[in-house]
TrEMBL record:
GO biological process, one term: peptidoglycan metabolic process
Source organism phylogeny: Bacteria, Bacillati, Actinomycetota, Actinomycetes, Streptosporangiales
NCBIfam families named in the record: PBP4
Recorded GO MF terms: serine-type D-Ala-D-Ala carboxypeptidase activity
Family: Belongs to the peptidase S13 family.
InterPro entries: Beta-lactam/transpept-like, Peptidase_S13
Regions annotated as coiled coil: none
UniProt key word Secreted: no
The EC number(s) this enzyme carries: 3.4.16.4, 3.4.21.-
Protein species of origin: Streptosporangium saharense
Keywords of this entry: Carboxypeptidase, Hydrolase, Protease
Presence of keyword Protease: yes
Designated name of the protein: D-alanyl-D-alanine carboxypeptidase/D-alanyl-D-alanine-endopeptidase (Penicillin-binding protein 4)
Length: 452
C-alpha cells in the first residue's frame, strides 16, 4: 500500500505543473515574448493516476454499506441525499442509496458534457478562429468558431496554452501585406451559435457575479475584462472584434470598424488566417480541473454542431443526451445546460458513477481525459483545499465537485485498499446552511470508499 501511495503521489506531483488553479493563474507573470507561439512539441501523457491497479478483490459489501450508510446520515447533508459506488471492471453497483433518483448535480454535470465531447468530437479535435475575405478585396471578416479560451495575451504557466488573438492578427497582417493590402474594413461573424446567450434556467445573477459569460461563438479570455479577472464584458463578441482591430493596427494594417460590424460570412469565403485551440482532451482537462463554466458550455455546443443540432442551450442538451444514449449512458441523465449552473438539471447518482466508470475503463482510452482532468484530493483544482480531515487519501481520490445554493456533490474515482478501481457519486440537493460542512461530509464518504 505504501508503494502504491508513493507511486501515485509521484505521478500527481510530476503532472502538477500542467494543472493550474485560478489562484495560480491570477499570479502568473505575463510573457512579453513574440505573439507567434513556438512550434508545437509532441505531448506524451501518462494514463490516469489510478489506472495502474484496478483488478484487486472487491471490497466487502456489508462493511462498505454499513460505513457509507452511517456517514450518509450526517445532518450536514440534509434529507435529500443519493449515493452510488460502481465497480469499473464489471460495471456492478457495489453500493446504492437513492442511486436511481435524479438529484441536482451542479457542476458534476460537466462530467456528462465532457464524456459526450470526447466521444463525439474525439480527443484530438480543435476549435478554430478564422479570418476570411469579405465581399470586396479590402474587407475581411473575423469568424468565431466557438473557442472561449482564445486569449488576448500569452500567460506563462497556463495549461493548455490557448490560441492568441494577436497571433491571428499578425498572420492576417502578413497575408494582407503579401497581397499588397495595407488598409481594410473589418467585420465579424459570431453566428455559429444560436438562441439566447444565457439559459432561461439560469439565475439572473450568474453573469454579473462572474460565474459565466454570455455564451457566444466569438469570445476572448472567456468573456472576462482581462485574463484572471472575474468581471465579464457585456458583449464578448464585440469586445473580441474591437481587440482584433486594434491588433491589426499594431501590425501595420490600417483597420477600420464597419458601421454594420456583425455579418454572416459566406461559406465559400477564402480563409486568410486562423488559429486553433488546444485539443479537446486538454480542453476537457481544463474544464474539469478548474470547473470552467464557459469552456464546458462551448464544448456542449461543439457536440451539438457535430451531431447536427442547433448550437443553442436546447440543441446542446439534446446532442449531449443523444451521444450518451448511443453509449447506453443516458438513463438517469436530464440536463438543460452543459456546465451545471441550471438548478433544473437532474442526474441519478448511479448514472453519474457509471459515466465516470466509462471514462475510467481501459477499453475507452479516448475518454480517459475525464479522469486525468478531475481534481486530485489535496493537490489540484477544486479539491486542492479539500480532505483536510482525511489527508491519508491525498492523491488517492480524483473527483469533480458540484456546488450551487443548497447543493453539494462529489463524483470521481479511487482505488480501494485491496486495489480495486471503483467510481462513486455522492449528491445532496437540500443542504442546510453551514459553509463547508457538507463538503467535509462528502469528503468523508469518498475516504470511506478509498479505505474499503
Amino acid at each position: 500500500m505504501v508503494t502504491l501511495v508513493l507511486l501515485q503521489l509521484f505521478v500527481v506531483a510530476a503532472g502538477a505543473h500542467l494543472l493550474t488553479s485560478d489562484s495560480l493563474r491570477k499570479k502568473a507573470p505575463v510573457s512579453v515574448a513574440s505573439v507567434e507561439p513556438p512550434p508545437p512539441v509532441p505531448v506524451i501523457t501518462a494514463g490516469p493516476v489510478l489506472a495502474a491497479r484496478g483488478n484487486g478483490p472487491l471490497p466487502a459489501k456489508g462493511t462498505l454499506a454499513g460505513r457509507l450508510t452511517e456517514a450518509l446520515g450526517d445532518p450536514a447533508l440534509g434529507d435529500s441525499v443519493g449515493a452510488a459506488v460502481v465497480d469499473v471492471e464489471t460495471g456492478a453497483l457495489l453500493f446504492g442509496s437513492g442511486a436511481e433518483t435524479g438529484v441536482t448535480p451542479a457542476s458534476t454535470t460537466k462530467v456528462a458534457t465532457s464524456v459526450a465531447a470526447l466521444a463525439s468530437l474525439g480527443p484530438d479535435a480543435t476549435i478554430g478562429t478564422r479570418v476570411v475575405r469579405g465581399p470586396t478585396p479590402k474587407t475581411i471578416v473575423l469568424v468565431g468558431g466557438g473557442d472561449p479560451t482564445l486569449s488576448s495575451r500569452k500567460i506563462s504557466g497556463v495549461y493548455p496554452q490557448p490560441a492568441l488573438l494577436a497571433s491571428l492578427a499578425l498572420r492576417t497582417a502578413r497575408a494582407l501585406k503579401a497581397a499588397g493590402i495595407t488598409a481594410v474594413t473589418v467585420t465579424y461573424d459570431d453566428g455559429l451559435y444560436t438562441g439566447p446567450r444565457t439559459a432561461s434556467t439560469w439565475k439572473p445573477g450568474y453573469v454579473p457575479e462572474g460565474s459565466v459569460a454570455p455564451v457566444t461563438a466569438l469570445m476572448l479570455d472567456e468573456g472576462k475584462v482581462s485574463p484572471g479577472s472575474h468581471q465579464r464584458v457585456p458583449d464578448p463578441s464585440r469586445t473580441a472584434y474591437a481587440t482584433f482591430v486594434a491588433f491589426l493596427g499594431k501590425y501595420g494594417v490600417k483597420a477600420v470598424k464597419s458601421a454594420s460590424a456583425r455579418v454572416n460570412a459566406p461559406k465559400e469565403a477564402q480563409e486568410i488566417a486562423r488559429v486553433d485551440s488546444a485539443p479537446v482532451y486538454a480542453l476537457v482537462e481544463r474544464a474539469l480541473t478548474l470547473s470552467d463554466n464557459d469552456l464546458t458550455e462551448a464544448l456542449a455546443r461543439q457536440v451539438a454542431l457535430k451531431e447536427g443540432k442547433p448550437a443553442s442551450f436546447e440543441g446542446a442538451a439534446q446532442a449531449v443526451l443523444g451521444v450518451l444514449g448511443r453509449m447506453k449512458l443516458a438513463q438517469g441523465v436530464r440536463v438543460f445546460d452543459g456546465c451545471g449552473l441550471s438548478p433544473k438539471n437532474r442526474i441519478a447518482p448511479a448514472a453519474l458513477a457509471r459515466l465516470v466508470a466509462a471514462a475510467s475503463a481501459p477499453a475507452n482510452p479516448h475518454l480517459h481525459s475525464v479522469v486525468s482532468g478531475m481534481p486530485v484530493a489535496g493537490f489540484t483544482g477544486t479539491l486542492g483545499h479539500r480532505f483536510v480531515k482525511n489527508h491519508t487519501v491525498y492523491g488517492l481520490v480524483r473527483a469533480k465537485t458540484g456546488t450551487l445554493d443548497g447543493v453539494n456533490a462529489l463524483a470521481g474515482t479511487t482505488v480501494t485498499r485491496g486495489g480495486r478501481l471503483v467510481t462513486f457519486a455522492f449528491m445532496a440537493d437540500k443542504v442546510p446552511p453551514g459553509w463547508g460542512k457538507a463538503e467535509a461530509a462528502l469528503d468523508r464518504l469518498a475516504a470511506i470508499v478509498a479505505a474499503s
